[in-house]
Amino acid sequence: MSKTMNVGIIGTGVVGERLINAIKRHPQGNVKGIYDVNAERLEEIANKYNIPTVKFYNELLEDKDIDVIYLAVPPKYHHPIAMDIISSNKHFLCEKPLANSSEEAREMYEGVENNKVINAMNFPTVYTTAFKKLKSLLSEGFIGDLL
């Protein structure tokens, strides 16, 4: 039997909710806990999807049962929260952009390397109909030669 992947989500806005739906559809996915600074939105999502909440995102990082964190907060907050995630030795998926400067990105990269955690950015557009159409147009030469 395959292992369930327990996910903690920091940020329950539109993008966070989209990922909640994707995780819930996956047979191995389980959203174990969610956090958002917007208490009203957090309660709305928790009730809608029957997911436990935490008062502070660090509680998700301290939960030994959580395998991966999904970071879905506004980009200006990615770096400090990502560094906390890295320090907790949790793997994480981050919304784009990963960082707001090359210095932040470098620090995050070094933290990931030093702590041996896996980090990725979420680029869901490759699964959309529009992307498939663009790929088709490119392969047909519709746009011309790309330089």
Protein traits:
6 helices; 5-stranded parallel sheet; 147 residues; alpha/beta
Order of helices and strands: EHEHHEHEHEH
Number of continuous helical runs: 6
Number of strands: 5
Largest sheet: 5 strands, parallel
Strand fraction: 15-25%
Shape: globular
Task: Explain how this protein is built.
The protein is globular. The mean pLDDT is 91. The longest helix is centred in the C-terminal third of the chain and has 14 residues. A five-stranded parallel β-sheet has the order 2-1-3-4-5, sandwiched between helices. With 147 residues, it is α/β, with parallel strands linked by helices. Helices cover 43% and strands 16% of the residues. Helix 4 runs parallel beside helix 5.
Annotate the secondary structure layout:
Blueprint: E1 5-10, H1 14-25, E2 29-35, H2 39-49, H3 58-62, E3 68-71, H4 78-87, E4 91-94, H5 102-115, E5 119-121, H6 129-139
Parallel strand pairs: 1-2, 1-3, 3-4, 4-5
Helix pairs in contact: 4-5
Describe the structure in brief:
This protein has 147 residues and is an alpha/beta fold. It contains 6 helices and 5 strands.
